[in-house]
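Q: Convert this sequence to structure tokens.
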Amino acid sequence: MISVNNLTVTFGGWDLFSDISFMINPKDRIGLVGKNGAGKSTMLKVLIGEQPATTGGVSKNSDCTLGYLPQQMKVSDGKTVFEETATAFEEVIRLEKEIEYVTEQLSIRTDYESDEYSELILRLNDLNDRYHILGGDNREAEIEKTLLGLGFERSDFDRKTQEFSGGWRMRIELAKILLRRPSVFLLDEPTNHLDIESIQWLENYLKDYNGAVVLISHDRAFLDAVTNRTIEISLGKATDYRVSYSKYVVLRKERREQQMAAFANQQKLIEKTEDFIERFRYKATKSNQVQSRIKQLEKIDRIEVEEEDTSRLNIKFPPAPRSGQIVVESKDAEKSFGDKHVFSGADIIIERGDKIALVGRNGEGKTTFARMAVGEIETTRGSIRLGHNVKVGYYAQNQEDLMDGNFTVYDTLDRVAVGDIRTKLRDILGAFLFRGEDIDKKVRVLSGGERSRLAMARLMLEPYNLLILDEPTNHMDMRSKDILKHAIQKYDGTVIVISHDREFLDGLVNKVYEFRHGKVKEHLGGIYDFLEAKKMETLAELEKKEVPRTAKEKIIQPGKTVDYAEKQKLDKEVKRIKVLIEKAETEIERLEAEIKIMDEKLAEPEKFGIDLRDPQHFTEYNGMKEALNKIFSEWESHNEKLSEME
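A:
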């Protein structure tokens, strides 16, 4: 469908692309990868025709159509969401008018044997075929299905587009592109403003789509789910790997090792040849051999290897000061903005050391809850309070936009740092890859990823024991995300993270709170446990409607069949285990309180009249610790049993 032929694009005498060639075939699923600045987004602009080639070019079939979603776009105002989305069917509307005209001509003409009449019949067939391919028969249903899939509610359909945030308006543009059904999708970071469920919907849509897809994304899970071919842009060249992203990473490592070996061998040959030339350059008896070696050097096709970025985003959060056992407690919390109800009935308890995720569709209240927790906004009803000695480090979703663009990178930290930490600002910035002249750059010239890193660096300026991170990985490349994830895993404090990046959340969080339809629901386990449970819940809801009401009949549950009597027995055992869990939790609270008192006494023995030479104090203290460990083990065992039974 599309052929890139010997493409070269030059900027100011420097080749961004040099003699690149590749094909895009029907049903290809291509991930376009490479370092930041390699030219991935520019390649999409070349394909769409926005960026001209210096030499070479792009050719495509006459019937090939393109659907392009850039990272930033202009959106129009004045229409409702449904009306704006319906503009995707402009061709369908034009076809309807033409079909109507041709049909009318056929009805009034009587020259049935003429060539013109035959041409009209053929034209009508072609028009009808194209009309059906574009979904003209059921376009309203298609609009509804696509908007719902991308996270809109039916109540949003009649709202004006200007009422929505930039992320939601980007979804409207994405919906229009999807509904146009182009031959090739060109998508630049399409998941940046989508929630987890919408990303999954888009994955399934693209996997089943009849055309081709060329995709740029920093979402590894999304790339693996959608693509079957990876084109890497590096050093102005394009290398085609006909595998998905994860397999490409393995193959690229092997290819790089081969390149490095070939490069080393060539460098040895060049060095040896240059040494010979230098040694015998002025000896008449060796002049022929010297000239031969010089020509040999000129003919060598020198191997280029992209410099490996060995710098490390060396993030290590400061040790967390000890907080109380309860870090955040939300009791029947509710929030509304005027007539707009966000959520209600939020009962959430976050304990010391928990790492939890807040997930759900955009606009369901995740960021609102975070802002309520840090005291930026008040609850409409109920309460959200922080526990004893909780110090919050808050990374807002628009954190990087809140920084003054006129300050330098260094000044941004220097203006908020106090005390001894000011002597370590360069070290902190170095850990976030700001080195040398980078620290004197103005914030306004930084890329999105650089701004994110700088905003994250501000969290290092003082120790916190609760980190609230709202979409911290937006604009970060895969390498930076991996290192940030590792740092959070090692962090000894409590973490609340809002993210739609499944790969980032996997192995990071141990509990998920879902914000959906104005309610908040707790899910134990990691992000993929949550996603699996969501599928099971959908199945359970379908089956629940079909459950027979007679006690003698079977009760269907996901994955198994249980008699009514067996279910009663199971329910009784579940209640018993829940009682044991409550007793264990009460005992844990009692022991933790006693250990805390003993900690204070042992820390200041003179104040409490304690003789540290008496071993009885330490025997008692160690006994409490052992009892706490034992009851913790019992509590974990009870919870595991409960999870299996439920």
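The radius of gyration is 32 Å.
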